[in-house]
Amino acid sequence: MKALSRDFTLKEKILLLFLCLILVGLAYYQFVDRPCRESLAAAQAEADSLTVELTAVEAKLVKMRNMRDEVEDITAGGTASEMGSYNNSKEEIALLNDILQSADQYSISFSEVTRDGDQIRRNFALQVTTNSYEEMETILSRLYASHYRCLIGDIRCSAPQRNVYGYLDGRVSVNATATFFETMVGGVPDAGLPADQSAAA
């Protein structure tokens, strides 16, 4: 017992102080420094992730603004049209009948629809006879500027012919091809829907 109660020598005191400093340093590293570094690293990783996400959102925002400006420009120009959801054939036929009712005679023949992803193309051939060029021009203009997106393809026009009395017959005949565009967004698949060509490629 007497040996344990003796005073430490200067060398032992220095050694004990050194050991205490090491223990304090280890405790600081274990319980303060390392958790702080891990928290800072996690915060930096989260900040980097949020920066990437913010950049993507900003890019989408710019794209949406550009699309909005484009839609406003198109609407202001009076050429806005929409792609109806599949199957929009009844509305398209009603539109054609409405546009063509002023024609002297007409016929419409649809071919099978084609599909590329969400986009549906409904091709049709059009034969129209009107009493004048002006009527024909009005019909084609109304079809071009119709509510539903329609692309007019080949147009073949026959000039007025002379009748049996030698006078020019004002009737004009036109053969044309055109395409209505539809979308599967909001559409309901049916038996007439073809396979997706983009999936097969």
Structure description:
The protein is of the alpha+beta class and 201 residues long. Helices cover 48% and strands 22% of the residues. Strands 1, 2, 3, 4, 5 and 6 form a six-stranded mixed β-sheet that branches. The longest helix has 68 residues, at 10-77.
Itemize the secondary structure elements and their pairings.
Elements: H1 10-77, E1 84-85, H2 89-100, E2 105-110, E3 114-116, E4 119-130, H3 133-144, E5 150-158, E6 172-183, H4 197-200
Parallel strand pairs: 1-6
Antiparallel strand pairs: 2-4, 3-4, 4-6, 5-6
Average predicted confidence as pLDDT: 84
Straight-line N-to-C gap: 92 Å
Strand content: 15-25%
Based on CA atoms alone, the radius of gyration comes out at 39 Å
What structural class results from the helix and strand content?
alpha+beta
| Residues in helices, as a percent range | 40-55%
Q: How many strand units? A: 6
H and E string? HEHEEEHEEH
Helical element count?
4
Runs in which pLDDT lies below 50 for 5 or more consecutive residues are none
Shape: rod-shaped
Major sheet attributes: 6 strands, mixed
Structure at a glance:
The protein is of the alpha+beta class and 201 residues long.
